[in-house]
Design a protein that fits this description.
The complex is a heterodimer of chains A (about 350) and B (about 290). Chain A is about 25% helix and about 35% strand. Chain A has a six-stranded mixed β-sheet, sandwiched between helices. In chain A, strands 13-12-11-14-20 form a five-stranded antiparallel β-sheet, with no helix packed on it. A five-stranded antiparallel β-sheet of chain A has the order 15-19-16-17-18, with no helix packed on it. The radius of gyration of chain A is 24 Å and the shape is globular. The longest helix of chain B has about 30 residues. Helix content of chain B is about 75%, strand content about 0%. Chain B contains twelve helices and two strands. The radius of gyration of chain B is 24 Å and the shape is globular. The chains are: A alpha+beta (about 350), B mainly alpha (about 290). Chains A and B meet through strand 6 and helix 2 of A and helix 8 and helix 9 of B.
C-alpha cells in the first residue's frame, strides 16, 4: 500500500504538487488523469522517490519512505519517450535491472525470455533498440519494468508516442501483464477515454491538486466539482451559467430547464450546469427533454459520428451526434438537453447532489 | 520523356567554374607543373619527370617529419579526447554557470593561431615567461629553445590548451541532448555513475566524439602556425612537422620542384583522410 500524506512539492516559487493525499492498494490499477502540466509527472516522481516532497510524507506498506532514495525502493517506471540503453541489445536491456540486482545468470535468462515472449520481442533480442520501431522500443522498456517485479510500477503516458493501432493493443494488454504480480500500477494519461478504457481507479489532477480519487466510472459519472468534470471530458464539457427560479433553471430566450427532482430543494441562486456532448441531441430523447435553438460554428466528422460545435448565448457547446451531418456555419438548429443527465455545480464549482442536500 | 536541352545553363555555371579555376585548379596545376620540372633560376625550367617524387619518398627527412607528425597527432588525441569528455561531464547543465563555462571554453578557440603561438612563446621563456621562469624556479631544468623534450611538451600543452575546448563543446552538445528521462530511468534501475557514463552518456556522445576525433586528427596533421611561432621547428628538427618541413623546403631553400612534389603528396594524404572521414561518417549514419 502506497500512501501519500499531505504531500506538497514546490520548486522555486512554483507549486508543482499541492497538498495531495492518496492511498493506492496492492494489485490496483490507478490512473492519473489531467492535462499537460497538471502535475502527473511530478506526482509520479514523488511516488517513485526521484524527488523528495517539500512537505508531507510518503508511506509504503506502513513504513515512512519519505526522502528514501529511489535505488532503495523497488520501483519501475516507463516514460513517454522510449528510454532504453542505446548501446545494449534488447536482451541486455531487459536483463539490466536484474544484473544490477545481482541475480544469477540462469534466472536472468529465464526471466528475460519470459518477458520477451509476453511482449512479442523474442525475434529482436539480439538487436539494438535504435534499430527497432517505436512500438518495439517501448515494449522493450515495458519488458524491463516487468522483469524487475517491482512493487510500484509507474507508467507516464507510455502510449502517447505510439500509433493508434499499437496503442489500442498495448492498452488492452498492459493491465493484464501487471495484474498477476500484485503490484501497485499507476498510469498517467491526458486522455479521458484512455482512463475509461483502463478502468480501475482514477485520480483527476488539476494545477497540482488531486481533485477527486475513486473508481474511474464513478469519477466520470459523479464528479465532485466542475474542475474534475472538465478534466474528465473530451471534447470539453458543455457548461452554462444559469439562475434557478422555483423548479426551473432559466435559459436564454425564456426556455425553462426543469431542475432534476432530487435537487428540488436547492436555493434559488446562480448555478453552473454541465453535461456531456452525447447528452445533447438533435432528436427529442424523452418527453422531459428541453429544446433550445443554437447556432452551428463548425462540424467535425469522425467516421460514423459528428461533433457539432454550437454557440448558445455566451456558451460554446459540442454535440456528439450519430451519422455524418453537413451543417453550414451559422445554421440555426434545434437541439435537446436531457435534464436527467445534467450536472449541477454551485458558485464555488462544487457539485450539488441529492446526498449533499440530505446532509 | 524527352530531355530538354538548354545551353543557356552553361552561362549560369560559368561564374562558378571561373571561381573554382582561379581558387583551386590553376594553383594546383601550377604546383603539378613545378613538381615535374627543375630550375636553376632565370625562369628556365627543365623536365625532371618523377625525380622529385622518387627523391621525396626515399628521403629520411620526409619520413621523419611524417612520423613526428603522427606521434604528435596521437599524443594530442590521447590527451584531448579523454580530457574533453571529462570536462564536458563536469560542466553545469543549467543555471548561470552554463553561459560562463561556454564562453570560457570558447575563448581559446577564438584566438588567432599565431597569437596562440606568441602567447606560449612568451609564456614558456625561462627568462621573462611566467611559466618558464617559475618552472625553472621550482628546480626543473626547462628550456624549450634548447631541449627537444621540453619543446615537445610546450607544443603539446599549447595544443591541448588551444583545442581541448573543441572536444569539450562537441561532447557537451552531445550530453545536453540526452533527455532527463534517461538519467531517471538509470537511477530507478540503480545504475552506478560509471554505468550511466558507459551505457548512456558514451553511446549518446559517440557521434560527436567521432567528429571530434576526426577533426582533431586532420587539424593536428596539418598543424603549422603554432609550433612554427614557438619553436620554428627546432631545436634541430625535433618539432619539424610536415607542413613546417614543406615551408622550409619551398621558401627557406627555395627548392620549388621538391617542395611541389611534397605538397602534392601531402595534399593526397589529406585527401585520403578526408575520404576516410566522409566514409566513416556516412557509414555511421547509414547504420543508424
Amino acid at each position: 500500500m502506497l500512501e501519500l500524506r499531505n504531500v506538497t512539492k514546490t520548486v522555486g516559487a512554483q507549486e508543482h504538487i499541492r497538498d495531495v493525499s492518496l492511498t493506492l492498494q496492492h494489485g490496483s490499477l490507478n490512473v492519473l488523469l489531467g492535462p499537460t502540466l497538471s502535475g502527473k509527472t511530478s506526482l509520479m516522481r514523488l511516488m517513485a522517490g526521484l524527488d523528495a516532497p517539500t512537505s508531507g510524507s510518503v508511506w509504503f506498506d506502513g513504513k515512512d519512505v519519505t526522502g528514501q532514495k529511489v535505488q532503495k525502493r523497488n520501483v519501475a517506471m516507463v516514460y513517454q519517450q522510449f528510454i532504453n540503453y542505446p548501446a545494449m541489445t534488447v536482451y541486455e536491456n531487459i536483463a539490466s535491472p536484474l544484473r544490477v540486482a545481482g541475480v544469477e545468470q540462469a534466472r536472468i535468462d529465464k526471466e528475460v525470455r519470459n518477458a520477451a515472449a509476453l511482449l512479442k520481442l523474442t525475434p529482436y533480442l539480439e538487436r539494438t533498440p535504435l534499430s527497432l520501431s517505436g512500438g518495439q522500443q517501448q515494449r522493450t522498456a515495458l519488458a524491463r519494468a516487468i522483469v524487475k517485479n517491482a512493487s510500484l510500477v509507474l507508467l507516464d503516458e507510455p502510449l502517447a508516442n505510439l500509433d493508434y493501432k499499437l496503442r489500442e493493443e498495448l492498452r488492452a494488454e498492459l493491465p493484464k501483464m501487471f495484474a498477476a504480480t500484485g503490484t501497485i500500477f499507476v498510469y498517467a494519461t491526458t486522455e479521458p477515454h484512455e482512463a475509461l478504457l483502463l478502468g480501475g481507479n482514477t485520480a483527476t489532477l488539476s494545477e497540482g491538486r488531486v481533485t477527486q480519487f475513486g473508481p474511474t466510472v464513478e469519477v466520470f459519472r459523479k464528479p465532485v466539482d466542475l474542475v474534475t468534470a472538465r478534466t474528465f471530458a473530451d471534447p470539453p464539457l458543455n457548461a452554462i451559467v444559469l439562475s434557478k427560479k422555483g423548479s426551473d433553471f432559466l435559459l436564454e430566450g425564456g426556455v425553462k430547464l426543469p431542475v432534476p427532482p432530487e435537487l428540488n430543494g436547492i436555493p434559488d441562486a446562480s448555478y453552473t450546469i454541465g453535461f456531456q456532448p452525447h447528452h445533447l441531441s438533435l432528436e427529442r430523447p424523452n418527453a422531459s427533454a428541453v429544446p433550445v435553438r443554437a447556432k452551428v460554428t463548425i462540424t467535425e466528422i469522425t467516421g460514423s459520428e459528428s461533433f457539432v460545435h454550437l454557440d448558445f448565448a455566451d456558451a460554446r457547446w459540442v454535440m456528439l451526434a450519430h451519422g455524418i451531418l453537413d451543417f453550414e456555419t451559422d445554421d440555426e438548429v434545434e437541439v435537446f438537453i436531457d435534464p436527467r443527465h445534467i450536472m449541477v455545480f454551485d458558485q464555488n464549482g462544487r457539485a450539488v447532489t441529492a446526498s449533499k442536500l440530505a446532509a | 520523356m524527352d530531355k530538354t536541352w538548354n545551353n543557356k545553363a552553361w552561362f549560369l555555371v560559368l561564374p562558378m567554374l571561373v571561381l573554382v579555376a582561379f581558387s583551386a585548379v590553376i594553383p594546383l596545376m601550377t604546383v603539378v607543373n613545378y613538381s615535374v620540372q627543375d630550375t636553376f633560376g632565370n625562369n628556365v625550367f627543365f623536365w625532371a619527370s618523377t625525380e622529385w617524387f622518387e627523391e621525396l619518398l626515399h628521403s629520411d627527412r620526409f619520413w621523419e617529419a611524417m612520423v613526428r607528425n603522427l606521434i604528435f597527432s596521437f599524443i594530442i588525441l590521447a590527451i584531448e579526447v579523454p580530457l574533453g569528455i571529462f570536462i564536458a561531464l563536469n560542466m553545469p547543465k543549467k543555471g548561470w554557470g552554463v553561459p560562463v563555462c561556454l564562453v570560457l571554453m570558447a575563448l581559446p578557440l577564438l584566438i588567432p593561431w599565431n597569437v596562440v603561438g606568441t602567447i606560449w612563446q612568451v609564456f614558456g621563456r625561462n627568462d621573462i615567461g611566467l611559466l618558464g621562469y617559475y618552472v625553472n624556479a621550482l628546480g626543473f631544468n626547462y628550456n624549450y629553445v634548447q631541449d627537444p623534450f621540453d619543446a615537445w611538451v610546450t607544443v603539446i600543452v599549447m595544443d591541448v590548451w588551444h583545442w581541448t575546448s573543441l572536444v569539450v563543446l562537441l561532447c557537451y552538445a552531445g550530453l545536453v541532448s540526452i533527455p532527463d528521462a534517461f538519467y531517471q530511468a538509470a537511477k530507478i534501475d540503480g545504475a552506478s555513475r560509471w554505468a550511466v557514463f558507459r551505457y548512456i552518456q558514451l553511446p549518446k556522445m559517440q557521434r560527436v566524439l567521432l567528429i571530434a576525433v576526426l577533426l582533431r586528427f586532420m587539424d593536428s596533421f596539418m598543424i603549422y602556425t603554432e609550433p612554427f611561432v614557438v619553436t620554428g621547428g627546432g631545436p634541430g628538427n625535433s618539432t619539424t612537422f610536415l607542413s613546417i618541413d614543406l615551408v622550409k623546403t619551398a621558401l627557406g631553400q627555395f627548392d620549388l620542384g621538391p617542395a611541389a612534389a611534397m605538397s602534392l603528396v601531402y595534399f593526397l594524404i589529406i585527401l585520403l583522410l578526408s575520404w576516410v572521414f566522409y566514409t566513416v561518417m556516412t557509414n555511421y549514419d547509414a547504420e543508424r
